[in-house]
Amino acid sequence: MKTRYPRLFLQPGRERSLLQGHPWLFSGAVARCEGSPEPGELVLAVTADETPLAVGFYNPLTNIAFRCLSHDPESMVDRNFLRRLIVDARALREKVVPGRTDAYRLINAEGDGLPGLVVDRYGPYLAVSFSTAGVERFHREILDILRKEFKPVAIYERSEGKARSLEGLTDRTGPAAGRMPPPIVDIRENDLIFEVDILSGQKTGFFLDQRINRELVGSLARGARVLNCFSYSGGFSVYAGQGGAAEVTSVDVSLAAGRLAKANWTKNDLPEGDHRVITADVFDYLRGDEGRYDLVILDPPAFTKSTKDVARAAAGYKEINMQGIGKLKEGGLLFTFSCSNFIDEALFEKIVLGAIRDRGKMARLLKVLGPGPDHPVNLAHSEGRYLKGLMLSVSGSGGFQTRPDLDFLGMGKNI
């Protein structure tokens, strides 16, 4: 069946990224579009000589002008098309999510071929977010598919934030199907229990992407003094406690997060005296804390959400890593993360290495860290790899001289 989508003509030679599997086309690649498609309408991307390439969502309002749904130019994007993608996403999770876990990401936007759609499972509830004009046009159909395929007690929507604004959309939150979820929902992750605030917690309530990294921390925590910075609801802390840590300190600026961290520790029957919860700005706390730890976790929020703030964010990441490294005992383990889309893996490694050098230390890279397999990423879409991390063993200088005057990152001496 021939599709009847308006054609999006590309500038000569600008089809290469699509042919290599990247799901986006930027506005500079577009020559013109037939008719006047509204934001989110389906179009057929074609080369300058009219060779069909792919079907996807078009939005003339944004820098990302085209988001690919199918590289088959004959694809009919309808309810059945969407259902196949959602069923395929479920099949993948059935393979990769451990059986003792009832909270994980069901649909990860471009990673599952549905740009702008995120669906998280929290026990019997689903939390959804529509962040592009394209998936917004299929809002009713997608919710109906989710309801019929997964039969949740309720679906709660958290479609909000800058991404929607850029797409020309307003925020929308609230029950999308079924009754309102309770303020706190208990979930199970590797047989550990966590309280989650689906209604107003960070992200959709919990940092589901860190599950495999929490497991790793738990496996290395026996007998250790552990410092968990930006601890939120204490996920890393609980795993460390369950793994036999001698002492765990959780630090977060949010009083509500601290209450959740305490509740989650208690819920898992861990010794109360082994866990300190500190409500403080992490930067200030680290500057004043004179303790030394066997294992330090740095999992800050995104320091930038735009390219114009990358230098400032790099300075923040360097500072927090310098402070965290300073709290480690000789040979201690550092788990350090960035979830900023605009700080790529290479830059993040340079920032951390700069912090290590300025501390007069050496580090051995033990593992490159990222999200769990329930957060798949299109291999051609490096922008989808927002969570990156390093597991390092940090020790003395090994004899080299520090150079505070050296512009190590090539980004200015203040970084």
Describe the structure.
- This protein has helices spanning 16-19, 79-96, 133-137, 139-150, 162-166, 211-219, 235-242, 255-267, 282-288, 310-326, 345-358; strands at 7-10, 24-26, 30-33, 41-46, 52-58, 64-70, 103-108, 117-122, 125-130, 154-159, 172-178, 185-189, 192-196, 225-229, 247-252, 275-279, 293-298, 328-338, 362-369, 388-395.
- It is an alpha/beta fold.
- The strands form four sheets. Strands 16-15-14-17-18-20-19 form a seven-stranded mixed sheet, with helices on both faces.
- α10 packs across α11 (345-358).
Question: Layout of helices and strands, plus pairs?
Answer:
Blueprint: E1 7-10, H1 16-19, E2 24-26, E3 30-33, E4 41-46, E5 52-58, E6 64-70, H2 79-96, E7 103-108, E8 117-122, E9 125-130, H3 133-137, H4 139-150, E10 154-159, H5 162-166, E11 172-178, E12 185-189, E13 192-196, H6 211-219, E14 225-229, H7 235-242, E15 247-252, H8 255-267, E16 275-279, H9 282-288, E17 293-298, H10 310-326, E18 328-338, H11 345-358, E19 362-369, E20 388-395
Helix pairs in contact: 2-4, 6-7, 9-10, 10-11
Keywords:
415 residues, disordered C terminus, single chain, globular, alpha/beta
What structural class do helix, strand and pairing data support?
A: alpha/beta
Strand order of the largest sheet: 16-15-14-17-18-20-19
Count helical runs.
11
* Major sheet summary line: 7 strands, mixed
Low-confidence stretches: 399-415
Distance between the termini: 56 Å
What integer is the average pLDDT?
93
Shape: globular
Radius of gyration: 23 Å
Q: Summarize the amount of helix as a percent range.
A: 25-40%
**What percent strand?**
25-35%
Multimeric organization: single chain
Q: What is the β-strand count?
A: 20
